[in-house]
Amino acid sequence: MATGTVSQTPAQTWETPKAVKAIKSLKTSGSFWFGSVFTKSLRQARTPILAWGIGMGFLTYVVYAALKSVLGTPATANAAQQLAESFRFFGDPVAVGTPGGYFTWKYGPFIPLMVGIWAVLAGANMTRGEEERGSLDLLLAEPISRTRALVEKIGAFAVALLIIGFFIAIGALLGAASIKTPVSVGDALLAGLNISLVTFFFGMLALFISQFTRTGGSAAGWAGGLMALSFVVDGIGRAINNAEWLRRLSPLYYYDLSKPLIPGYGTNAGAMIVLLALGVILAVVSVPLFAQRDLGGIALAWLFPQEVNKPRLSVSQSLASANRDFSTQSVGLRALAAQGASAFWWIVGLTAYTLLLAGITKTMITQMSSFFSSPLLAKLFNGSNLATNNGFLNSLVFSLLPVGMVFFAVVMAFGWASDLDNKRVETTLSAPLPRWRMLLERFGVVVLFSVLAAFFVWLGVVVAAVMTGLSIDVGGVAAASFGVLPLELIAAGLVYALAGRLSAYTTLGIVGGLVLISFFMSFLKELLKLPDWAENLSIFQQYGAPLTNGINWGATIVMLVITVAFVVIGAWQFSRSDVK
Fold it and tell me: Which of 302, 331, 365 delimits the end of a domain?
């Protein structure tokens, strides 16, 4: 096993005049940001820090500030508390009649999942990203050990999450102040710290898994799937009797134990220490695994006989083997194989979420029948007619699910942006294949994954309805499931349009921020007194409620046309520009 700077990347991949000039510039510049691995890693994370930090902080402010109209009177606050008792899956119904309690109940678990998307991608590519593009060899050629390099990278990642948590805390303080709700600076900072700790755990989980995979994408897929599963497990333990013990298997349980934004509830220091300890343990274990493995290889390879006993092939034998490999027959098939594991775990998480909520719909309808005439209930769930099975199902299952499906498509499209950054398209470009076709095949894989996600969401609802005896409109469920496709594709298309000009993480930050703004546009409209047409710019507003009202075909066609335009822009840029 190599423990030094063993590399499988030919020198000519980086010994170009452009690369040599850049390396000399960095060595002679004396810039603070390139003085250490820590500062360089922090600089590379500046865009995600600003995008996710300011974006989530702003949305925290917007939602908090809009709660005054939701919880306008004592009677309304009382009704909110009673309703939340029946929706325990989303969060613990603690002081829901207060702005801090309502925000914590409805959006508390949502924010760490959103920040967790970046944390998982960053953790998975902390070492694998640089290995895949061959830049880690240059770093390790300097007088710095692998251990120190990874420790400094982890330190920069932790600081980035702390800064994001700080922005969220500022958003909570400003939002609370705008509606004259007392929230102390200390409690707001603890709320931000709690988010930073749980997302640090998921990032370190991705880093740990990446030591046993050959690509960052596979590690991110596994970690992202486990993150989604932890959300479902936590919800099951909260919503089902005698299943409380399940919650202890989810890191989100320890996150939920602290509710600093609720006056008088406070923070569970023990739970926060547990989250920190779990993240640190994964980090500490990952460091020696990385230090002892070959670059490009997997940790503890001796445990996998197929790796140890893999025959060394000559160049001609390797090429012959590649020609026989089904996944190498086209760009699309190769992308399908490379992103299959990631897509699989995302779809498993989305399907599990769907099965659970659809499975408890009939029980919840019975429990909440006395609330159906409440104007607050209609307001909480976008005016849907909750007295019908389809209306209730639409509000319960398809209120948050579309945003998860859109982020799934964004993460799948992120693979293209990441490949451009890591220069993994150069070898493919040497083949007699038009660039536009290469991009279209890659986008076609995103379309395929999005269709599969919609199908399994539809199947999950139907299976749950059959198992529980819930009468539903199967066609309406199909409309609600597949109606998310235009939203997924327009977001993925924007990734392809921006990837030709911006870095992968800058692209992810911009598109992720726009998706969240679109999702919370109703709050923004109310708070900023925006005109009605502004809300119509939201893709989620155009999605509507297909389960009860059918698909908005006009909006669907417009979104698909915009998607085509984004893909054309991406293909034009990729065809005419140098590879980044």
Answer: 302
